[in-house]
Amino acid sequence: MGHKLLSWFILASIFIVAYVDAQWSVTGMTGVTSMHAMMVTPTTIIIIDKAENNPAAVLPDGTTTWAAEYNLVTNKFRPLKLSTNTFCSAGAFFGNGTFLSTAGGEPSKVVTASDGYRGIRYFQPCQDGACQIIETPSLLSSARWYNAMVTTPTGDILNLGGSVQSTGANSANKNNPTFEIHSANGNNKASPIQFLVDTLPYNLYPFVHVIPNGLWQGYYFIFANKASVIYDITKNVAVKALPEAPGGIRSYPCTGVATLLPLDYLDNYNPQFLVCGGQSNFNQFTNPAENTCARTNLGSPNPTWEADDFGGIPRVMPDVVHLADGYNVLFLNGASVGQAGYITGGGTLLASKPALTPVLYSMNKPLGKRWTQLTASTIPRMYHSVASLIPDGSVWVSGSNPNENYNTGGPFPTEFRVEIFTPPYLSGNARPQITAFKNQTSLNVSPIQVAYNEAVPVTYTLTGTPGTITATIAQPGFHTHSQAMSMRLVHLQITNIASSGQNTFTANIYMPPNSFILPPGPHYVFILNNGTPCAKAVWVLIG
Ligand SMILES: [Cu+2]
User: Fold this and answer.
1) Helix (H), strand (E), coil (C) string for 360-425
2) Which of 19, 173, 324, 346 could form a disulfide with 526 if both were Cys (CB 3.0 to 4.6 A apart)?
3) pLDDT at residue 5 in the model
4) Neighbouring-strand partners of residue 158
5) CA-CA distance, 342 to 350, in Å (whole number)?
6) Is 433-542 in the same CATH topology as 2-426?
């Protein structure tokens, strides 16, 4: 009898845990570790590793490199030349669509790579295999390692914090508590920021977001360690400090993850920030990771914290992805024990127990009902892993190299395999297909220029009986070290839906009202049928 009950319990648990309609598949190889990655066109992702001797990433001159462009159509990578060390650096788009990479680490001992701490690199995305990274002789105002970058409402880039040399936890003598703004004409002047002094020693890769609306519109929300502040970058003053967030340490090496949740016109783009995972104790490599989250409403004059769990799975070094429906946020990758950092020379693992099961966060459900565990992967994604939404609504997952160099052995070898994760929302409903956008039928060849508030005519096909049709615009973000820099998703109003032939519809989609809600730059527009995204989003440039 007891046995029977136990087997029923086990069976029931399996049904609760595994979502059968989420899937994983291995599709390609990256050639370099995906330490940093960002969608740069609808078919290409730039991948930046640190200076490393990657045997398969061979340039035409026979040398190896540590950056590549991954092609989502061919599932092949194209090695990209670099000359400075991009170890633990940052990236963002300018409003005009040019990609900027800054900062890095010391000269390499294994390949010819010079000091990258003050590196500034440009990349003009292409889909013809011709574009290259251009490293400039101009330098950052000061050395930065583990800095954060975000596109500003003016189309410039804010570059924030970091340390002046590589380290475990940060310290006063290595701290770089400054920020600088990059504009298209390259203006670099550092300003001090006290918040990055007050948050020592856990302030590396600070989480930073433009506040879209409400009382604090246009200010920045900055979170590090357990502290956060609403900050006026123009005047360089802290406008409001929030109370300490509940739960453990959220910043490197006790690495948690954070995001500004998707924004909706239905609640007037009310900004809500969520931080999850991490570790309660530094240098306790067998300590379980944080199974906690904290959420705050930045639409409030006095934001406070609501504590939640992390979907039942302790997780350090998680990655976060806004799914295209704008209601569900995916958390994946990382480990359930330990902290971020390389396996030591003596073989001590800083993290173990890969957290293979993704969790889905349904942001509008009541507390206690927001989490769903999805189908697990079989590939550990430890330190230096990433994930990104791609234009077909699925999730591109790659990376993992907790070894100081390229290493095919050990418990967690250097991982080049790419996986595509298919979330449950891709099955169950017919998928719209956008056939015309702003009267153009040639889509995703170059970004279609759109303006704030513009009513854009669209045509799409959809078989069967249409369900509820919605629209969103997404910037998938620059992913590194549990950061999703500039990742942003906004619900779009869709009106005047009309049938214009068999299985063909026309409608108007309204772009977001202003650049605080969605900073300028390249983005992807989705149409969804009952929450199931279209076959391919449309690449636009807003601003
Ligand atoms: Cu790193």
Assistant:
1) EEECCCCCCCCEEECCCCCCCCCCCEEEEECCCCCEEEEECCCCCCCCCCCCCCCCCEEEEEECHH
2) 324
3) 41
4) 150, 181
5) 7
6) no
Quote the ligand 1 centre to 252 CA distance (angstroms). 9
Q: How far is CA 496 from CA 149, 425, 507, 509, 511, in A?
A: 38, 25, 5, 9, 15
Per CATH, the homologous superfamily of domain 2-426 is Galactose oxidase/kelch, beta-propeller (2.130.10.80)
Q: List phi, psi (to 5°) of 269.
A: 60, 40
Residue type, 219: Y
* Residues 290, 310 contacting (CB under 8 angstroms): yes
Residues of the chain with pLDDT under 70: 1-20, 187
10 Å Cβ neighbour count for 285? 16
Residues 389 and 476 sit within 8 Å (Cβ to Cβ): yes
| Fold of the 433-542 domain | Immunoglobulin-like (2.60.40)
Q: Rounded to the nearest whole angstrom, what is the distance from the C-alpha of residue 36 to the centroid of ligand 1?
A: 9
Find the 162 Cα to ligand 1 centroid distance in Å: 12
Nearest Cα to 78, choosing from 93, 96, 97, 58?
58
Question: Residue ranges per domain, the chain?
Answer: 2-426, 433-542
User: How remote is the CA of residue 263 from the centroid of ligand 1, in Å?
Assistant: 30
Ligand 1 centroid, distance to 427 Cα (angstroms): 36
Give residue 320 CA to ligand 1 midpoint distance, Å: 17
> What is the 384 CA–ligand 1 centroid distance (Å)?
6
Residue 415 Cα to ligand 1 middle (Å): 15
Q: How much distance in Å is there from the Cα of 142 to the middle of ligand 1?
A: 19
User: How many A from CA of 442 to the centre of ligand 1?
Assistant: 40
**pLDDT (0 to 100) of residue 158:** 98
Of 259, 227, 270, the closest CA to residue 245 belongs to: 227
d(CA 380, CA 265): 38
pLDDT at 171: 98
- Å from CA of 481 to ligand 1 middle: 6
Q: Quote the ligand 1 centre to 94 CA distance (angstroms).
A: 24
Alpha-carbon dihedral of residues 197, 203, 206, 211, nearest 10 degrees? -50
What is the distance in A from the centroid of ligand 1 to the CA of 87?
Answer: 7
Cα of 478 from ligand 1 centre, angstroms: 14
